[in-house]
Design goal:
single chain, 196 residues, alpha+beta, Jelly Rolls, 2 domains, 5-stranded antiparallel sheet, 2 helices, 9 strands, 34% strand, elongated
């Protein structure tokens, strides 16, 4: 995506608790002379800020024009990941566009190939099996989180339906009492005028 040089851009990731998140990014600056984006943006850094659903800051750090960040979610819910350049140019002169490449991987534990080679006793099948077990645990966490969200939604729906039922009962009782009051008032009026 494209962002302005001084603009903050945020994305929302809905995460279950205890989930590892990796992010890789690369920033390219628009070159007015070449009329294209430079391969990199030397001297330009990016502030990466991650907030939890309770507005607690999990990560707030300055990185270079390209980098990798990671964090672990402690709560389930929508986490906000924000990016802003550290450009010191004045707002009037900081009008250049930035192209932002972002790759976010949720719940993945990457295989460290050098560690695999260092451990000669552990064969590749064993390492792959451990990786699959981690992925299964991640899927299980995702399913638990979805069940929790569905249960919360069901409780909210039941409460809403209960409120609607009580509101309908109150409306009906109000209409009946107004009708009885009108009939009594008309009867009293007719008796007073000696029409009945």
């Amino acid at each position: 995506f494209h962002i302005g040089e001084r603009e903050e851009k945020c994305i929302i990731e809905d995460l279950p608790s205890d989930t590892l998140v990796f992010g890789n990014y690369k920033v390219q600056r628009w070159d007015t002379h070449k009329h294209g984006f430079l391969e990199s943006a030397p001297g330009l850094g990016m502030y990466v800020t991650v907030s939890t659903p309770d507005d607690e800051v999990l990560l707030s750090k300055l990185y270079g024009p390209q980098g990798t960040f990671s964090f672990t979610s402690h709560l389930s819910g929508e986490h906000i990941i924000c990016f802003q350049s550290n450009s010191t140019r004045l707002l009037a002169f900081a009008g250049s566009k930035l192209r932002f490449h972002l790759d976010i991987r949720v719940g993945e534990h990457f295989l460290d190939e050098s560690a695999v080679q260092a451990k000669e006793k552990v064969d590749e099948v064993n390492v792959r099996l451990e990786h699959l077990i981690e992925q299964i645990q991640h899927v299980s966490k995702e399913q638990d989180y979805e069940r929790e969200r569905e249960e919360k939604f069901r409780k909210t729906s039941e409460e809403t339906n209960s409120n609607i039922l009580w509101w309908a009962i109150v409306q009906t009782l109000t209409l009946i009492s107004v009708g009885i009051w009108q009939i009594k008032s008309l009867r009293d009026f007719f008796i007073a005028k000696k029409l009945v």
